[in-house]
Amino acid sequence: MLRKSIGLLLLLAVWVLAAACAAAPVAAPAQGEAEEAGLPVVFGAYATAIEEPWDGVIHTALNAAQEAGRIEYTYTDDIGYSGDMERILREVAEETKPAVIFGDAFGNEEAVRRVAKDYPDIAFVFGSGGGPVEPNFSVFDNWIHEPAYLSGMLAGGLTQSNTLGVVGGLPVPEVNRIVNAFIAGAESVNPDVVVLTSFINSWFDPAAAKEAALAQIDAGADVLFAERFGVIEAAAENGFYAFGNMSDQTELAPEYVVSGPVWHMEPTVDYIINQVGAGAYTAQDLKDFSMMAKGGASLAPINGDVTGGISQELIDAVEAKQQEIVDGLFRVDVNEAQPPASTAE
Prior knowledge:
This protein has two domains: 23-140 and 265-294, Rossmann fold; 145-260 and 300-326, Rossmann fold (3-Layer(aba) Sandwich). It is α/β, with parallel strands linked by helices. The protein starts with a helix and ends in a 19-residue tail after the last helix. The protein has a five-stranded parallel β-sheet with strand order 2-1-3-4-5, sandwiched between helices. Strands 7-6-8-9-10 form a five-stranded parallel β-sheet, sandwiched between helices. The chain has helices at 2-22, 31-37, 53-67, 84-95, 109-118, 145-158, 173-189, 206-218, 231-237, 266-277, 312-326; strands at 41-45, 72-76, 100-103, 123-127, 137-140, 163-168, 194-199, 223-226, 241-243, 257-259, 261-263, 297-299. It is built from eleven helices and twelve strands. It is globular and about 60 Å long.
């Protein structure tokens, strides 16, 4: 058991190091240099460390756009929520004068909106539960409730104890709708299932997430949804199935990670780059670009190699429902109410 735990920690460390190396920030290009190359300058502003999956998804899409020769991209991460976001954004707006600033916002919402108002010629594209503001403030979110529902179907069909565990960050609407969709999916295939939910009140605290997951295991959960980092390790150490979130996290525990909802920012990033390049940028709500129908969300490949395997009948049911969602024949409800600590009646 100790050997397995050490192995998982090493794998996580390698994953984090690889992400950091691939994402190493470079010196910001001068505006004139970028203009000569015909590329828009894009800056990323992230409150948490880039290893946190939410920010990591945004960064991955922007990094891919740079590698494709479409933008010049730099970023600052781990900014926090103490007021540094506003200072950094103002410095970047004055000194680098990027065409677009992408970021996570939410906890820094008011600060970001203040800066955007003062720099109307820069396109601000931030994660937000609020609306867009003309002329330059667009919003997006991770609308991955659809693949979360499919993940729940898999979890409900795999549990032997009829008890699932979900560990989330904070009970905000954006997280609640993912958790509620997962619960709904589980209940659709297993009416007897009980779902235990816990929130660690942090966006990135793997130790706290693992501790919460272990408590759920002690309470009988044998399948866990890792809405936050740290849960997969707890599941694997105890030989239980787990579901990742935001990105395909199968590599963290190939014997136990079944699948999970995946967020793709590429459609959003491509749309904004095209708008800016055409001189047609307008402030808007970009939520549709994070839906499955537009390629903004997906279910991570179902890992048929997990210990114990997955029945073909369950896989077929999930894939059929996935097609119904993409074809617009089935709608996953958007329920942003805080889920109960347990769905037991």
